[in-house]
């Protein structure tokens, strides 16, 4: 009975407890406070979001997605709407601010359309967590944020928001409980760095990257007792030092990339013993940089890229057992990959300073290795292909040779970059088995063989593929139903493609497509304009054999379009208004420029050169003041006037109008083009006097007025420092008269002493400046202009008087042509100081006297012409003068000596050679090699044209020779990375 009584009692207690729990459960379903429920519904109606779509009236708001309620009061205490697709404005009267009991609020990753951060956010007195990051707020951070004294975490990462000193100091003073402060991309340029000294001592995370901070960052922050994560990167004017005395920091993440904080490697390795993530990309290192990792035994991610480090790579870093990510890209490291010992597994002393070749254990833990853009040579070691954890391998832009390795067990690879090396052979079979790879770049190597595109069929995660500029032959013959809808970037330039890849019909996410420099014939497929209508940004079909007319483009977000060097016909097609760069040069387009071109007010480069376009140039092109940098209309049939108005504040850098039928004067409004570097109006019908007013343009480097109707004397400069940067000046084939402009020659600073010695070309990004100049008697189109190329051509005018000695000051001059004028007097001996001169043409004038012996010092001179003058005396001998033929001197009856048949008398002896240099054919100038492409009676004749060759043996610039009145197009082979 006792046992039975106990059972009854327990049964009664169980029923009572169950009833109570049931009652509690029922009541918990109806805890939501009605005021809060109403506020949330009003807030929902202001936006559309998938997260709030099921918020419905009459249902308990505490059960709604993203909503958390207090168990006792039923008030909403948490609202998580991060990444919810909210779009619209948040005003100060928003019902959001009725939720007075909020403790956590996350509105990150939405679009509030530039709404200001309302001061009402400061009214959430209980808030401990606030995240407004990346939600398109705008304006200033209100000082009322400092009222949130209970905040533990604050994230205001907003690129269009600014924080002034007053508001920040209030935040620092009042938010004493802060443990996480994230102000990434907030404009804090007015905040004094010393303000950070007063931050909460409990702070463990401080993110201040890309905040425009400037000044000296306080050393004390590095010694904060609780600080674990410190992000200061990309504040390019932020300076500072590590503390000098011994200290210890608990920092686990330190990112100082692109700052001017002085990094002492010794301090880093001695005092930051807890570091796991260290980013020192492009930093200011002081003192020696050791090869050994020091005490950073726990490091997992190490970025030392873009610091100009040289010598051998510190391969001993691979011994660090915790290291997973190593980035040493953008340095000057040399040498080869190390040997590995598969039996070594620890960090014990494995480095032998007496050995030239390091030996390291195979880094099985490594997930990312980035050695891009160094000077590594040798072959790629096979052990890289067997790392089981490797996800990213980037060794592009080095000097590696040999075959690409096989990847045997690296099934985790997602990104592989072997571009811009000297690799050869076939693409290994294992590449086509990397099923997880998303990015594959094998471009700019010497890879060969026929590649059936279907081999990539297993790579269904592949979104970036670049095979450009190899010796591959790509075929799409065997593709059946294979598609790659995930493709975003596809670069197949110079792949010997003969057919358009039709699988692209099913590539809706394509952003970049490069099929340039191939052999594709026929019309551009009409279906192409329907592919990736919302995503396509770059399209390059240049240097193919496309024909027919192109009528419409449907891509809404297109930025770059290149259809140049094909055989397209019909009227000029107009790309979408979103276009920044439009190239359609070297085609057969006809007709006038459509007025719809005026809708392209975001254009930065417009290249319509080498077509058959006619009619007027629209005035709107001169009014594109905020964007247009290059306007290239050369070699068409445009007539009428050059646009008379160029807007103030314009950024026009290159105006190319050569080879049209333009008339009238140069428009004075060109003076508003303060960024103008190239002005080429040659071969038109322009009727004007010399435009002295252009001399004040501060950046003008190329002035081509050739073959027009310019007339009159040039006169003297109107400004104190005229044409300071001018390097190419061509006034030939006009009607200029009067004396040579000696005062101008005195001020051509860029020709007097050029500061440019590196192999660089004029241009900006996508566009290389092009110009036609007369070199050694032939018109040559330089498809790239070296920044140290200088020449003066005043030929075929009516200049009179003597040649001034002042020209001898132009020591950077490569070419000088005063031929076919009415010049008198003698050849100045100062010409012997033109040490870089490669051609000198003074023919068909009235020069008298002897040829100065000082000219034999010109060891770079390879073309010399003084024919049809009145020169007398012996021809100098020695050096370059022993290479010139009779035609250099013909028409001067008073000259004698070799190479002429007329000998000099006993009282006449050739002037001696000046200088002791050995005979040089080229000197320090251009290496002119013979490659003539002229035409005479159907016979091809060779002449001297040069090009420099870069280290990999590929032409780095090309020229085009054009005989007068007969021109032949030469195609420049350009390699552009996608």
From TrEMBL:
Keywords: Cell membrane, Glycoprotein, Leucine-rich repeat, Membrane, Receptor, Repeat, Signal, Transmembrane, Transmembrane helix. Pfam families: LRR_1, LRR_6, LRR_8, LRRNT_2. The keyword Repeat applies. SMART domains: LRR_SD22, LRR_TYP. The chain crosses the membrane at residues 930-950. One of its GO terms (cellular component) is plasma membrane. Residues 33-69 form the Leucine-rich repeat-containing N-terminal plant-type domain. Its main location: membrane. It is a single-pass type I membrane protein. Residues 1-19 form the signal peptide. PROSITE patterns: LRR (PS51450). InterPro entries: Leu-rich_rpt, Leu-rich_rpt_typical-subtyp, LRR_dom_sf, LRR_N_plant-typ, RLP23-like. It is found in: Cell membrane. It comes from the Eukaryota. The keyword Membrane applies. Belongs to the RLP family. This is Receptor-like protein 12. It comes from Prunus avium.
